[in-house]
Amino acid sequence: KGVANGVQDLRKVLSNVKTRGILGEIQLGAILQEMLSPSQFDENVATRPGSDDRVEFALRIPVSEGETIWLPIDSKFPGETYAHLRDAEDSGDPAEVESAWKLLETTIKNEARDIHTKYVSPPDTTNYGIMFLPFEGLYAEVANRPGLLEELQRRYRVNVAGPSTMAALLSTVQMSFQTFAIQRRANEIQKVLAAIKAEFPKYQDTLLKAQKQINTANKTLDTLVTTRTRAVEKVLKNVTSLDDGADADEILNVGASVELLPEGDDEDGEE
Fold it and tell me: Which of 9, 81, 168, 214 has its CA at 20 to 30 Å from residue 195's CA atom?
């Protein structure tokens, strides 16, 4: 009896259109907050330029460097028609079930038309919107209706998602965010590599010139150390040197002799 009273209370709550709308919006918001970062979606967005109609949630979909478009998502909960269908199925009357099904199907189509008309506006948005149904049972009924999902996609450009399929869809969107971030980094790397490729011939040419100058200086030093030094030594071979180095410095006017520091020490004696 307590359970029956609770179910009756729940039906009373869900019979209120505004309450049903709030319930679906809260559930959709909870899923988005769990799956995405705050920068990847927004609430109450006017996705159609110049329109005052605001969709409950919209995802930011990256399309190019620094640019995004909106993917509108609106929750719908035709609670009364769904409850009527469940009651008809419990009664077992095929005619009543079919009548209830047609009513629910018409309601779903009207909701899809509403989403398309108010919120879908390429190129500012994606060319489709998403209708979120907050209960798996309701989504299963719509998904199992032959041809209904295909008609909604073809005629109204609206995809339908329940709680579990919405999570899967958001995982796909999350991958697209990551792919776009990787692509953006790849473009930056490509630009850097292109700049390096353009600069490398200049760098190589300058390096070859420096190498040539070093080789020339090295050859000049070899000539001084070998040929010229030997020639001077040969001429001075028979000249008697002065015993006093100070006298030599005074005669040649070169000042005091220079003492080389030990290898690895600087002028202050530190390593």
Answer: 214
What is the 3-state composition of the chain as percent helix, strand, coil, each rounded to the nearest 5? 65, 10, 25
CB atoms within 10 A of CB 31: 20
Helices (H) and strands (E) in the chain — how many of each?
9, 5
Question: Higher model confidence: residue 263 or residue 110?
Answer: 110
> The whole model's pTM is what?
0.59
| Token reading at 243 | 């015993």
Q: What is the mean pLDDT of the chain?
A: 79
Where is pLDDT greater, at 176 or 52? 52
Write out the two tokens for 216.
């020339």
Residue 210 buriedness (CB in 10 A; 0-12 / 13-18 / 19+): exposed
How far apart (Å, rounded) are the C-alpha atoms in residues 118 and 110?
12
Cα 99 off chain centre by: 48
Q: What is the structure's pLDDT at 20?
A: 58
3-state secondary structure of 75: strand
Task: Give the chain's end-to-end CA distance (angstroms, integer).
Answer: 94
For tokens 């919107």, the residue is: 129
Taking residues 224-237, report their average pLDDT.
74
Amino acid of residue 211: Q
Strand 158-161: give its sheet, edge to edge. Answer: 41-45, 55-64, 67-75, 129-132, 158-161
